[in-house]
Every structure is written in structure tokens, then in C-alpha cells.
Amino acid sequence: MPSSRHEALHRIFRDNPELFAHAFKILNIDFPTPSEVAVVDTDMTEIAPIERRADTVMMFTSRWGSKTVMITESQSRRNDAKASAWAYYLSHAHIKFRCPVMLLVICQDEATARWAREPKRIGPPGFPSLIVHPMALGPDNVPQIIDPAEACEDAVLAMFSALTHARSPRSMRY
User: Fold this and answer.
1) What pLDDT was estimated at residue 108?
2) 90 with 101: CB under 8 angstroms?
3) Which is nearest to 80 in space by CA: 56, 116, 128?
4) Mean pLDDT over all residues of the chain?
5) Mean pLDDT of the 58-82 span
6) DSSP string, 81-144
7) Cβ atoms of 120 and 75 closer than 8 Å
8) How many CB atoms are located within 10 Å of the residue 97 CB?
9) Which of 80, 91, 119, 152 has the most crowded Cβ, counting Cβ within 10 A?
10) What are the respective helix, strand and coil percentages of the chain, to the nearest 5?
11) What would the mean pLDDT of 58-80 be, rounded to a whole number?
């Protein structure tokens, strides 16, 4: 149960929104003066079911017992709306499994892979509250395996290479 001290620390802002201007000044954050301020519902529960489904979620446990969740997403093109979905997936998995969570994005073209591995900032410019920083694999960093002998050494890596480079011009010739 929240204490009166807990409540006072945030309610002073709710009851005196002009205090935000002082806070931003103290934090050296350029924040535009609002024309209107409204208190909105604090309940983050979603009544209507919203489908939120990551492509693949796996739990890795080390021999020492430490756990890590890996979320893997396929991405065929740039989609700036993904930042919010990925932030949700990461936050939800972190709360649910109470362990480190990582995001790996798999792409078939270099431009999408470069975009995917850029940090996605959520919040005001210059002071994001959340940064989603995926790892990404694509044709620019996955080796292209075209030698049959090399493919026989690691068939799974060869298949992944073929999938990753499926749209690469060099792959089309073989």
C-alpha cells in the first residue's frame, strides 16, 4: 500500500502541473510550454484484448542457472511502429520472467537490417525515457555460404545463410 510520502512525491505534480516546467529546467530539458494539461486515467490495464505476439520467444538457462529470454522477430522492411511493439514485448517478458531480455531482428535486406539495429528512442527528443536497442542479422553481417563443402560442415548455418541472403543479387545467380 502506498504511503503518504509516496503519494506526495507525485501528487504535487498532478495538483501543480506548472512544477513540471521547474523540473525540466533543473534537468536541462527543453520541453514546450503546454497549452492544456489534463490528468488521465492511471490504470494501464487493457480491457479490450489486444493481440501482442512476438514471432519467437525462447528462454535460455546457463549451466549456473541464470536465465535470459531471447525475442526473435523477422522484419521484411522498415516499420517505425515496431519500436512500440518491441518495447512492449521486452517490458512484458522482463516483468513476466524476471530476467534479462534480448531482442534479435532477422532481415533479408541490408537497409532493413541497418534500420533494425539502430536504437529506437521513445520519449522527447534529447531525453528518451526508453531506448530499444535490437541486435540485427542481415545480409550485411551474415556470411554468405555458397561453397557446398562449407555448407556440409554446418547445414543449419548454411540454411540460415540462404534464407538471409535469399534476396541478395549474388544469391540469385546460384
Assistant:
1) 93
2) yes
3) 116
4) 86
5) 91
6) THHHHHHHHHHHHHHHH-S-EEEEEEESSHHHHHHHHS-EEESSTTS-SEEE--EEE-TTTSPP
7) no
8) 14
9) 91
10) 35, 20, 45
11) 91
The residue with cell 541472403 is: 165
The Cα 24–Cα 82 span in angstroms is 28
- Using one digit for the tens of pLDDT, what is the confidence trace for 74-100? 999 999 999 999 999 999 999 999 999
> Among residues 70, 19, 62, 16, which one has the least CA distance to residue 39?
16
Amino acid identity, residue 148? P
Residue 1: which residues within 8 A CB-CB, separation 6 or more? none
Q: Which residue has the cell 493481440?
A: 51
The CA distance from 158 to 97, in Å, is: 33
Q: Is the pLDDT of residue 44 over 70?
A: no
User: Cα separation of 63 and 136, whole Å?
Assistant: 26
To which residue does cell 543479387 refer?
169
CB 53 within 8 Å of CB 85: no
Amino acid at 53: R
Residue type at 34 in one-letter notation: P
The size of the chain, in residues, is 174
Name, in order, each residue with C-beta under 8 angstroms of 57's C-beta and a sequence gap of 6 or more: 69, 70, 71, 72, 89, 93
Dump pLDDT digits (tens) for 16-25.
Answer: 878 777 777 7
